[in-house]
C-alpha cells in the first residue's frame, strides 16, 4: 500500500526532537508499504531516506517564539503546500499526525477530493490545550477550532491517541469511532544502561522543549531549595531566555544549561544523570500529555520525577520508578530519601528500564499502528 504520511514537524534520527514518526514510518516500510511523508523544511526538496520511505520537504518556517498570527500563517501555509504536493503522489491511504490540528484539514480535504480514508493521530488535545493555557482567546477562532476538531475526528477512519486521558476525551466527542491508545515510545536500543557515573553529585536532567507549557520556572524553585543536587536543562524554546535570566537573577548556582541536541548526543547526558524531570505548567489539560522525555528516561533506566498529576504520575508511582511532587517542600523531602539511599536509587532505575521494555517498547507499539493498515 502507498501511504501518505502527514507530519509538519518530522525529525530524522540524527536531528533533535521527537522520532515517533520515524519509528512508525520505518515499521510501515518493513511491513511492505511505501511511505511518502510530507513535512516542513527550509526549502522544497524530496529524498528517499531508506528503501520505500520518501520524505518531501515543503518550504516554510515555524518557531516557538513566533507570535500567534505568525503561527497561524505557518499552519495555513503548510496546509496549502501539502495539498498541492499530495496531488502528485498516488497514495491509497493517509496517516496524519497533529499537532497542529490544521494537519487534519489536509487529510480531510484529500479524503473529500480523492475518496481516500485517513487515520488521525492526536499528539496533543488541540484546541483544548491552547484554549486552557490562554493562548487561543478569540471567541470566533475558538468556535471554528472546536468545529474543525470534531469534523476531523468524525471523518477519520480510525483515531490514535497518545494517552488514556486523550483517548477518553476523544471518545466523548465521537463515541462511534474506534480510538486506539498508542503512547509515545521507549527506544531502549538508543540507551546503554549506566554502569559507572563520572560525577559524584546527584544530577537531574530535563531534556525537551522550554516553552510556556513546560513550566520550568516551577523546577527552578526546586533547584533554589535543593542546593545539594544539580539540575541540567537541555533544550530550546520561547521561555529559554526567561529561565536563564531567572537563574541569574536569583543566583541559583546548581543549574546548568545545554543546547538542544539529537538523541545520539543527548544520551551522553542521560548516561551521567541519575534522574529525569518531567515538567509541565500547572494546568489540568496538560495532565493528558505523553512527553517524550519521560519515555527516554525509562529507556535510559533513570529515576523519573514529575510535577504533574495524571497518568504519568500514576505510572511512576505504580511501578516505583520515581515520584511526584507538587511543591518545593515535597520535592526536597522525597529527594532526600532517595539521595541518601543508593539501594532505592538502583531499584527505581531498574524499575524504569523494566517498564520501558515491558509496556513501551517502540517495536511493540509501532506494530499496533502497522496493524491499522
Account of the 3D structure:
There is one protein chain. With 373 residues, this protein is of the alpha/beta class. It has two domains: 2-182, Glycogen Phosphorylase B (Rossmann fold), CATH 3.40.50.2000; 188-359, Rossmann fold. It is built from 14 helices and 14 strands. The strands form two sheets. Strands 3-4-2-1-5-6-7-8 form an eight-stranded mixed β-sheet, sandwiched between helices. Strands 11-10-9-12-13-14 form a six-stranded parallel β-sheet.
From the 3D structure, determine the CATH topology of the largest domain: Rossmann fold
Write down how many β-strands occur, each being a DSSP E stretch of 2 or more residues.
14
Shape, per Cα inertia axes: globular
Average the pLDDT over all residues and give the rounded result: 94
Per CATH, the superfamily of the largest domain is: Glycogen Phosphorylase B
Question: Which percent range fits the helix content?
Answer: 40-55%
Biggest sheet record: 8 strands, mixed
Low-confidence stretches: none
Order of helices and strands: EHEEEHEHEHHEHEEHEHEHEHEHEHHH
